Amino acid sequence: MASNSPFKPKSSRASSQIPPPPPPPSASQIRPAVVVLLVRPCGGEIPRRPALDSVERIVEDFAMDLAINPFSSGTRLRDMIRAIRACKTAAEERAVVRRECAAIRAAISEGDQDYRHRNMAKLMFIHMLGYPTHFGQMECLKLIAAAGFPEKRIGYLGLTLLLDERQEVLMLVTNSLKQDLNHSNQFIVGLALCALGNICSAEMARDLAPEVERLLQNRDPNTKKKAALCSIRIVRKVPDLAENFMSAAASLLKEKHHGVLISAVQLCMELCKASYEALEYLRKNCLEGLVRILRDVSNSSYAPEYDIGGITDPFLHIRVLKLMRILGQGDADCSEYINDILAQVSTKTESNKNAGNAILYECVETIMGIEATSGLRVLAINILGRFLSNRDNNIRYVALNMLTKAIAVDTQAVQRHRATILECVKDADVSIRKRALELVYLLVNDTNVKPLTKELVDYLEVSDQDFKEDLTAKICSIVEKFSMDKLWYLDQMFRVLSLAGNYIKDDVWHALIVLMSNASELQGYSVRSLYKALQASGEQESLVRVAVWCIGEYGEMLVNNLSMLDMEEPITVTESDAVDAVEATLQRYSADVTTRAMCLVSLLKLSSRFPPTSERIKDIVAQNKGNTVLELQQRSIEFSSIIQRHQSIKSSLLERMPVLDEANYLVKRAASTQAAVSSLNSAPAATSGGPFKLPNGVAKPPPAPLADLLDLSSDDAPVTTSSPTTARNDFLQDLLGIGLTDSSPIGGAPSTSNDILMDLLSIGSSPVQNGPPTSNSSLPAIETKPVPVKPQVVDLLDGLSSSTSLPDENAAYPTITAFQSATLRITFSFKKQPGKPQETTINASFTNLATTTFTDFVFQAAVPKFIQLRLDPASSSTLPASGNGSVTQSLSVTNNQHGQKPLAMRIRMSYKVNGEDRLEQGQISNFPAGL
Amino acid sequence: MAKERRSVESLSDLWRAGAEQAHREVEDDGVEQQRSKQAGRDDEMTIRFVLFVNKQGQTRLAQYYEHLSLDERRALEGEIVRKCLARTDQQCSFVEHRNYKVVYRRYASLFFLVGVDNDENELAILEFIHLLVETMDRHFGNVCELDIMFHLEKVHFMLEEMVMNGCIVETSKQNILAPIQLMEKTS
Lengths: 931, 187
Prior knowledge:
- The complex is a heterodimer.
- Chain A is α+β, with helices and mostly antiparallel strands.
- Chain A has 42 helices and ten strands.
- By secondary structure, chain B is of the alpha+beta class.
- Chain B is about 55% helix and about 20% strand.
- Chain B has helices at about 1-20, 25-40, 70-85, 120-140, 145-150, 150-160, 175-185; strands at about 45-55, 60-65, 95, 100-105, 110-115, 165, 165-170.
- A five-stranded antiparallel β-sheet of chain B has the order 2-1-5-4-3, with helices on both faces. Chain B has a two-stranded antiparallel ribbon with strand order 6-7.
- In chain B, strand 1 (about 45-55) and strand 2 form a beta hairpin.
- Chain A: InterPro entries: Adaptor_Complx_Large_Subunit, AP1_complex_gsu, ARM-like, ARM-type_fold, Clathrin/coatomer_adapt-like_N, Clathrin_a/b/g-adaptin_app_Ig, Clathrin_app_Ig-like_sf, GAE_dom.
């Protein structure tokens, strides 16, 4: 805010006084008040200084009023407020309010005349506190119907506060409104217009539109302006009426009174939205008038009446500029016509006052919105540049806001301010930082991505904790979007991991691992960089996981400095150093289960890479045999057994991971992250499985690998999983690429276990689901002995999915038979997007059990109001006979009271059998819980 | 698809037939939600609400230009007040809340909050708040929180002269105060 602006919140003042206004203009500058019509004629002269004199007197009078006159019996308003303020607890306050309400109710029912005004004032206060006041509604109507102005005044105020357009009581007031609109007193007309403009419903709009139209022609400007605003409400409620107001609105723009002008401009905007004809009409007829208004108001010298912060009526400026934007949008002629005046406003308006800046801001938006000349656009962008470098936070906020919109129009111009915008990312105010970060994100392109990312990453080092999450997400998103250069991508990711590894989402580092596994020439560099980073910042969870994984996979590259890059300096790491690093991580207090599990896998791999350390690793692994976490205990036992007893197969078992399928992973991730951005811990593995998973199967993935591992020592070991043996066979077949097509999920159980086991192949997001064909080549032959080996190899790498996967919200729901009759069966299967628990996609499948074909099949559904339903078109309207094929249709259901109320649905099916109409209906209440 | 949707509407009768009694409460909720949805869609409104709140978070004046139920009002006031009161003087005067913005300004112990649409000119709304304060000041003379509480209806009268149906009508202090002064003189 400019320092000379009148906005100076004086927080330093001790009392609760609001600071005095700037000195009032001298008496000679005040135009006499418009005192033409009064409720009761009051003779005498118009006072010279009405504002100041009368205020004092009125305050005194009112105090007297309260002290002696009508308000003396019962509690006064002031007393009630005091009593309420004195309450120490909410219960006390409720008691006071209840007592007051009872008194008011009694007064109303007795037809008390003296205290109606005060009772209404009390009711307003009670309403403001958030208590129901419906019993006062009828009293409002009575007050409106009274003859005097004060009664009407308070009555109308009560009407707008206590009622709304949807209450039926409102219909009763239509008649009073109509009478008041035709009243001879302009203030009463004004009241009625005001109330109508605030609360009228579509029916009232239709009834009273003629009156309002007539009042638009009234000679009193105050009535005109209110009629114009009332018309806005009418047009909004009944857009068909727009045409009636077009010419009147255009002619109002010729007025002098600012109140009329501002209302007329707003009416024009509403008309443009309501009908295209009106837009065309106004383009033709009122552009000239608008330009004239804007010129007059921006050229006018000091006008005390409309002076706001040193500028003449900024509100009128802004409304006119807004309307110009609507008219000029997509219309070259109009745009050209207003070019000059826009240039004038944007150069002449003072930019050292808040009001002036408000106008400039609106002007820039209009220039960006219309088909402006390039010169004008440059002018606009320059204004924004000035705003950006302003020291006032408000101005900078709107500049960033505006630049975000301008980027669509002129990216180059916005790019010029990149440096300043980057500075704003580091601002102290979180509102500004967020805006700036979003803008930077939009500004990134191929040419500037490297310097911009460097800036952001540098800032990550010093930024607030709360802001790191946003910042990290954006950096990762930028880096991934522009990851043409793999080395650069790795470098940035390593830095982000070391600086803010705790804020990184799982899918980001999963993607990093996939990429590293594909970039064979960079694996050496990666593992060395990560090793160094791990030494420096071992508390960043994601960094630790990635580093541990890499050390396990590429340990020999770390120790032998294999595949060095030119710019790299060799480091000396011994085999036991590498083991030390992993061991330290495993023992670190803050490491979570997933990290520890990964450490164990890594150690196991190292025991094969570095045979001399094998003994030591055996001891470390064995320490966890008694771990209270089942996952770790199990791994520890399994791995110990591999190290001790299966030396012969260990090396082939612990070979490096096959290259992960990048394209496949990216597709999966895109599908799963779209919806799951918000849920931090959602493991993509769970979402990539189909909707057919049964909950019981899903809940037990860990036992499966155990069974497989035990298989090594005894060929016919009992299968400890809940899945039937056939399922495992399926899986083995799948693994070898045999009979992939045959294992289509027919029944529930086989497909379930299939899914589980497939998931076990994955690191978190199952990137190797299509892996088996590629790994096939590494198997010597398809024989029984090697066959079980592969699952363990893969299983050992799955550390992530088995422990972190499958949060509840991703649990699948069983398919239900929603409806069954002698002729028709309907089954529903369910699917949910992660992160949107209230939304469910239902796949309905219809099967005809009769022997005749159904034609013109239509399925309809109805739901209670807290549920929203959308039906997609059915795949066909003909149902073949005897269950030979089925029709499917998908339904999207949003349960707005998810978790509180279950889904419920009524359905109706109509179809024709041999040309004869049939109708079936039913209710579905057996939806699975949790929908 | 359109056809299906229409049939769903006509089916609402079917639903009601069986579930009228059991689901009366549910339906009321549903209607309420539909209503607030409609109000939300009606986003032409420039000013959605004007709130005066003191430092303790107590509402001192509330004027809504869209319909909200009592509970919704309480929730909204609570959320916004919590957000705005936590900010320091150095931070900018705009807070993004749900699908709209709150422009706020603090005068001594009172916060003036105005909820506006996203494409509304925030700086102009700041000027509007100041104009409102100046107008009250001219009427009450060094206005304070108590003036507003005890003369709630007068502040509402002023606001009604300035804003109608969410649009600004009048920006001249003299025009705003004229009817109020006339009324007081005659009564």
